[in-house]
Write a structure and sequence with these properties.
With 807 residues, the chain is of the alpha+beta class. The chain folds into 4 domains: 217 residues, Jelly Rolls (Sandwich); 121 residues, no CATH class; 71 residues, Alpha-Beta Plaits (2-Layer Sandwich); 326 residues, 3-Layer(aba) Sandwich (Rossmann fold). Helix content is 25%, strand content 23%. The protein contains 20 helices and 33 strands. It has a 6-stranded mixed sheet, with helices on both faces. A 6-stranded parallel sheet has the order 14-13-16-18-19-20, with helices on both faces. Strand 5 and strand 6 form a beta hairpin. The relative contact order is 0.13. One of its GO terms (biological process) is proteolysis.
Amino acid sequence: MPNKNHLRIIADRQLEESGQVKFNYGFEENEDEANIEPNYIFMARAFRDDLKSYRSDIEVKVAAKDETIDVPFDVDYLEVDFMGQFHLEKYYSIWYNTFGLEGVSFTNFNRTALFSIADRDKFQVFISSIEGLINRGLDDNTEVGFNKNVLFVKNFKLLTLSDVLQVSAANIGNVVVLKTIELPASPVIEKGILDALESYLTVHQISYEINRETHRLELYDATLDELITIAQNFDVIESITSSLSGVVRPGVYNVPSRDFGFEIANADEELPLIGILDTGISMQTPLASITLRDDTFTLDGNPLIDDCGNDGHGTMVAALAALGRHNHSNNFEGEITADAKLLSIKLIGSGDGYLSEKKVIELLYKAKEKYPELGVFVLTICYKTHKKTNETFSNYTYELDKFAHETDSLIFISIGNNSQAMNENVDYDLNYFNNEHTNLNTPADSMNNMTVGAAADGLYGGVFNGIASGKEFPAIYSRTGHIDLAAIYSAKKRNKNLFKPDVIEGGGDYGFYNPTTIDFMDNAAISVLSSNPALGYTKEVGTSLAAPLTANLAAKLKTIYPDLKSQTLKALIINGASLKSIAYPDVNKSLLNRTSGYGLIDANRTIFSDENSATMILEDSIQSGEQKIYPINFPDYLISTSLGKTNRVLKITATLCFSFLPLQHNQLTYCPVHMAFSIFKNHSSDDINRVQRVLNSKLRTTLSWSQSARDKSTPAPYSNVQKIEFNVDVAQLRSEGKTFKLAVQALLSNQIMASQIENYPTEFNFSLVLNIEETVRTNTGRLYDELRAINNVEVINVVEADLEGEV
């Protein structure tokens, strides 16, 4: 059947109603983690040990100060683990006014807080309360008093050198990143210490770059002793970490194939531009004709040279991004046409190195400034170390998310390769993904960008030669999402939308060397372009191949629909992806999204509609506290003609994506914007908000809002990607008068520090993709045209689209 272009919902004409967000759904009111009678004996024992360690650590900290270094202020920091979630709106000011503790960072989804001791006199109230509770628990002294707020404390400790210094002599490298602490209530103190630190670095000739706005400092070629001195004397450092990064590449086959033997036929055409953040792109390959001859974007040598290893790395990534799946699976035979042109942004010359994250971000902004049309990037260089389970966002991830939001860009980031997987397995075992060291690498936890994992597909025909259960399954080396809300939240309060990767795409697989040994086997890998003209092609596997293949899909979308926003491209790719061919055993079902995201991408479903399957795109904005209602009208033939069945005559798949300005220092509200959607009965906004027992607006019992923000006191973290799928019966269409209501709501979290909420926007853009397809025995060929006729929609860019092109 012929391809058709997607439809754009004309938002202001299709919008029926704008109401208010009201929460009459979600979690039970009796879930209050704080209403637990404390065991004073156990608490007293824990507090006694914590207080003893705190006092000892204070003595060590004071003794380590170098009095010859001129620093105007000394600040101590207290790290507190709570019994449950620390409610900022309710308790932030109480802890500041009562205990003199200023909250500066919240992690573990607000179950752990770092406080600066801003008022030492008031802090004695905290210490006295701790001592009082110790006496109550160990001496059974019921007359002693203490402030009740300490009952919510699980443990506390002083922030010490061992907490701050997270590098060693072995991994210090030539670039280290210092995360500085923001003191919103004490800006004079923060500035004074930072000024003194900059003066110290200048006097001691330690090269550095600082960004006070984003609270990061990079030091170049600093020694371990210098880092220790800085951490011990300048009380504004939260962490010192290594920036060791590497290209996402598990190994090298060195299986050359032949000379290139092709040229790109459409190099003179105007094509979308993709930025390749990697090891450079070789101009000794056919990619030279579609690569901008711009050598200005580099951190390590000429970006138009790729001499990483024998075969390069950026070159093969660039080829996959520009030439896509079809050309690679077709072994570059026949006429080769490109889907994109390329801009080389060289981050490292070899396979590994210490990356200046600040300079990476500067390159991105400069590239965007020089080439405003540049909106798609590929990044396959990640940190070498995996993230711990539920670890908070890094500064690097924050900066990439901020860049994507501010510039309407989309970076396709590989989730990272687990190089240990081959040696730790003798077969394909899904249980292996339960190990923490299979977690993703920074910055693959980015929320505004797109994280891509690898499926085992090697882009070859015939029998599948890999070790996975099928080519659609995630490759054993592909890393997993690191968020495990089950470790923190009850089943009712988890956000099912919060996972990585977003999607998976072919990256090749390992093969069986013998029945009990897996290895790099060329018949299971992908044939990719080498930077070495003498080799032509080589065999590779990795998530660094999957990411550019997915970016290629974005380039195809931009060719046909050039005006779509980046979050719409993301929503289209996710909406087109599917998990239906990835069947996990029941015991492994909880791993499905953490390993495969929303599934394997499907180019044709992503790019095109057809006469029996219509994709409608809604790009709009919404205010905090607003609930918008858009009617979706269905054609009469669905209820008036015989379709061969009456149940499940339609399938609806919908995806919401939006970008946001991320917030530092608060893991729970890193994304502070709650946005949710669903499709309801033909009811008004107020009716949809009614308690279900009074009026049920759900089309199906399992179809509720895509995420909930009802629990304001102890909320789960929000996701900016949500997807729903459900089937439609004829009876539902008939009872609702052939009209369903698409509802979208938004609300800014109340769990934000006062210093952050003051200038935070209250209106948010969003992209919503809605696919409606017939699932009857014999398709009618009527759905697309009739949906178009009865809704306020328009065909997107129909004149310029090449509907017969390869996908």
